[in-house]
Amino acid sequence: MKQGLSLVAKKCRRTVTKAGLATLVFNKVPVTHFIVHEARLAGTIGLSQVVKWSVATVAGLGAYDAVSGATVITQLAPSVGSSTVPAEAGELLNFIYQVTGRDVEADSWEVEGQLPAGLVHLNSTNSNVDAITGTPTEAGEFFITVRAYEKPDHRGENQSKAFVIQVAPGNVPPAITTQPDSVRINAGSTTTLRVMASGPSLSFQWYRGTAGDTSSPVPNANGASFATSALDTTTNFWVRISNPAGVVDSGVAVVTVVDTFTSWQTHHFNQGQISDPLTSGPASDPDGDGTTNEEEFIFGTRPLVAEARLEPRITAQGAHFTISFKARAATGPGYSGLTRHFGVEMSVDLTDSDWAMVPGLTDLVGEGQEVSVQVSPNGNAGFYRLKVWLLED
Ligand SMILES: [Ca+2]
Ligand SMILES: [Ca+2]
User: pTM for this one?
Assistant: First the structure.
């Protein structure tokens, strides 16, 4: 019995000594460094210091039972002997623990439960000492269990102990690592905006408007990302991120809304008409002016008012001809994010294959201007047609 007791105490002293050394010397660097340098440092530190630390540590092991030789897992650092592990967000934590009272070293270790973000299990092998290390980035209480196994790969007899890692909020203000992106969407649809930020205990609030203007908070938009409601007009958003140590505002993300035939419909037809494709469908012509609804959308004319077709005027001036038309701008309801373009094509015989763009009239942006261009058909008969199309800005 006496011999058994002496064996246990000796083994305990050896493991405690190594871990204690590391904690004292390297408490400002990740514990991986300690593992690498352990052997070298053990040789350079004075024996009296080692002994002093060993004694202090053993004295702190309240649960250690030298008489029976019971196997226990004990915290060595940062809070010797405690089942609570104090930590602070943004500050390096080296949580070191050891198993004592065993006749053989622990061959493998396991951590059960969710570690706070930023911490990793060192996952020692063939060592009575193991550790969890890193810089936690979130505050809170994290309940974990560490388990030492007699054999590799989590086999054999095992011993476990529960710890709670208490991460205080710390003093690290939030920082934005990725700003929210500006996007283009079709009118009436939604999008999801995202921001990425670092720092502990982050709170988010998204706002409409220009950055810094908090008059229009978006209800329930309190995460790193949020889905907008269906948007009909171009809208600016930004997000304020805060924690106990500070506040940071993102830049503005512009959600550019681009109208489509479908959203144009909602501006020109009532609900009953929209539900009737014979009235509001793209191929329908409810006003009987020979222009389909889709063409009225492209030309910028009114789908329920019969109007003259949008056509170029041709006037003769001696041997020359002048083609003129009004290049309407794509403005008003149904044209958000769109630009109207005009071009004139010419054919000598009206066959589909030989339409050619007229030089100088290949692509004009409609700004409400009167366009007038002289053409010379070179003595041949010529046919002209006006081409109109909408493009996203
Ligand atoms: Ca029509
Ligand atoms: Ca019309």
Answer: 0.55
